[in-house]
Amino acid sequence: MKRKLKVACLVLSMFILLTGCSTASKSVLDPKNPVSITLWHYYVGDNKIALETAVDQFNKGEGSEKGVVVTAVAKGSILELEKAVTDSAKGIINAEPMPDMFSTYPDKGLEIDQLGKLCDLNDYFSKDEQKLYITAFLNDGKYDGDRLLSIPIVKSTELLYVNATAWNEFAAATGVNEKNLTTWEGVYAAARAYYQWTDAQTPDTAWDGKSLMGIDSVANYIIIGNKQLGVEVIDGKNEKAVLNHADLRKLFDIYYGGMSLGYLNAVGKFRSDDIKASDLIAYVGSSSGAAYFPTWIEKDNTQSPIEFTALAYPCFAGGTPTAIVQGAGMSVTKSTPEKQEGAALFLKWFTAEEQNIPFAMTTGYLPVETGAYGNADYNASLKSLSSGDQAEKNVAAVYDIALNQIMDSNTYASTPFNGSYNVRSILETSLTTMAESGRQSAVALKEQGMTEDEIVTALDMNARFDEWLSSIRSQLDTLGISYSEE
């Protein structure tokens, strides 16, 4: 009798346990009482249209069936969006209420999470569901080891874009080839040779050569360059900046030296603008920017068509080939169970291959699920782009090399910490400011008729490097950000 009683109690306990688990995992959504979800984003142009189209499709289909209505609100640029979200999270007077879901980069996501405003999406995305995403993309939204605070929507990497028409002419005349562009040291040597080659075409005028290339994101150049050489300049694990003098000096000599002497340049707002204006013939930029690479340039007051080539991101000699992974994800705000589940439902639907492929491939972004790259829709989109106009062909040409770089190389995105955004900004602004000062000094020295060696000596690279380090230290100290030196 006692045994039967124990068995009965065990069965009852298991029934209660299973019932409790079932209740916990049961959807709280109700199609008869749909929940409203507000989504803030920064997309513009074709991406904005693509997002709004997807939201409308969701609302009429999956959302209608499950009881979720999403409203997408464009908040301007990423900086304007981040300010709006931050003001909301901090309860600033006259700030709008927090959105239920919003686009965010890791640094800003961490800041909002520290205010206690983000939902851990592990509660809504199972391990099997998380395995659908490319690991490097998903990890960009993980904090404190395993907390999932954002879901990747689209991603990009950085590539080296080349005006092949101008490059081929230069290569044929000098013997320089694309292998020179695989390392940063080779890039510098090629840029110097290009400047000298173009300078020699006007022998009566000294120092009027052309710049070979530019860098869209100097911060990425510093962060990835350090990582290639084995150092995390933004050390999220230990919440500090790491200033490795030897590695930083390699980056400094190429960028500061190249910008000062005119081998590298940055003229317009974007390096693609510099290509169109014939100020550059190559630049490093986001794979999502292929659609903006010019199909023609202004030359002698006429438009001249140009060919396009995309190459892998350069690596420092002796370093490990490493490519950046970047792109905002979407985070869900802590609110009600209904709103959180509704937001998660939309994110699952939106990042599924059927929806994510057309959205990503609008302008050259990378879909986020591994299966997307064997999908018939993906191949059809590539085929359509390949047979389109020149700008679409440029986008199509980027996908294979960008995907190979993501899948076959080491990928990296720095782990954020409180203050990491400021570290990134300090590194970039301090170096670009130094380089502009060096350029101005070099221009004056060129006018005095100095040779390259004499100019480099007069610039005093050792002193300028020490000045750069001092500037970084001073700004980090002012903001109370920890750092170490090696």
TrEMBL record:
GO cellular component: cell envelope
Coarse class of the protein's main subcellular location: other
UniProt keyword annotations, A-Z: Signal, Transport
Keyword Nucleotidyltransferase: no
Lineage top rank: taxon: Bacteria
Alphabetized Pfam families for the sequence: SBP_bac_8 (PF13416)
PROSITE patterns reported in the protein's UniProt record: PROKAR_LIPOPROTEIN
Subcellular location: Cell envelope
Signal peptide interval: 1-24
Database matches in PANTHER family: ARABINOSE-BINDING PROTEIN-RELATED (PTHR43649), SN-GLYCEROL-3-PHOSPHATE-BINDING PERIPLASMIC PROTEIN UGPB (PTHR43649:SF31)
Family: Belongs to the bacterial solute-binding protein 1 family.
Protein name (record): Extracellular solute-binding protein
Lineage: Bacteria, Bacillati, Bacillota, Clostridia, Eubacteriales
